[in-house]
Amino acid sequence: MKRTMKLFKIIAIALAIIIAIMLIKFRPAYSVSLNGEDIGYVGDEEKFKNEVNENILTPSETNVAFVELDNVEYTFSLVSRNEINEDEVMLALEQSAQNVYRVYEVADLNNEETKVYVNTMEEAEEIVSTLKEQYGEIEPDLVINQIYLDNADEVNEETIKLAKQELTNSLQEELEEKQEIDSRTVNGIYLAVVPVTGRITSRFGAVESIRDHTHKGIDIAATRGTPILATASGKVSFAGWSSGYGYLVKIDHGNGVETYYGHCSKLYVSAGDTVEAGEQIAAVGSTGNSTGNHLHFEIRLDGKQVNPQTYVYQ
């Protein structure tokens, strides 16, 4: 029995000596890996994580929303005391960290490719306010979105200036398009197409010997057989011979708006047909009371002739 106790004491002393030697040479630590690759050892995991949070993950720039640092793992280990290299581990994490920047996007919902990125909500609101005031006629559909970018170089004085100009140009195009449509619209009917291309030889209201009244339309000279196109969509209300007009097509576009196409050589539509803007309805000729090949074009609103050049051939 005494022998056994003595043996246990010897073993315990030996283990104590071994443990003491190990504690002198080794210490508990944490292996740190980044994206599956070991980058070193730290002594106190909790303390080191707090330092990482303070020195790396807390944004130092005003427009940095947060810092990305993914795939970092800590594993308990026993290591030689001289293997602890917290400074090197911290540097490796700093180099791997990625700033994510918060910026504000001003976008035109009518042209999603045109947008401006700025650093603050105040800048975005100022841009929106200025453009809405400048282009109020088209009621621009501008929105502000908070977004995140990896590269702050995308938002600088030069890029903001260029993007603002692109957005302004886009809105200017929208404005000019609306003004063009408005200028070619009669009582809500958009006269989208010029019936024929040619030289105007007689204008609205002209007094000429060929007729005993002022001219109620315009004459556009063109080669015989030139296609005549419907200036807007509508329903053919007449297609046939009509005294001084010769062969004539009338189109009812609704809202009291009618167009007349006279002196045609051929008719390609009949009364009751529905036509689209730009559709060929007849061919230029010199039928009826005419001195040469041309299109006599009229616009009537509630039965009264109005000057076509107010809306087309401007």
Would you write up a description of this structure?
With 314 residues, this protein is an alpha+beta fold. It has 5 helices and 19 strands. The protein has 3 domains: 25-96, no CATH class; 102-183, no CATH class; 189-310, Glucose Permease (Domain IIA), CATH 2.70.70.10. The strands form 4 sheets. Strands 10, 11, 12, 13, 14, 15, 16, 17, 18 and 19 form a 10-stranded antiparallel beta sheet that branches. Strands 3, 5, 6 and 7 form a 4-stranded antiparallel beta sheet that branches. The longest helix has 27 residues, at 157-183. It is rod-shaped and about 145 Å long. The mean pLDDT is 89.
The CATH superfamily of the largest domain is identified as: Glucose Permease (Domain IIA)
CATH topology of the largest domain, anyone? Answer: Glucose Permease (Domain IIA)
Count of DSSP helices? 5
Cα radius of gyration in angstroms: 42 Å
Largest sheet: 10 strands, antiparallel
Shape annotation: rod-shaped
Q: Level of helix content?
A: 25-40%
CATH class of the largest domain: Mainly Beta
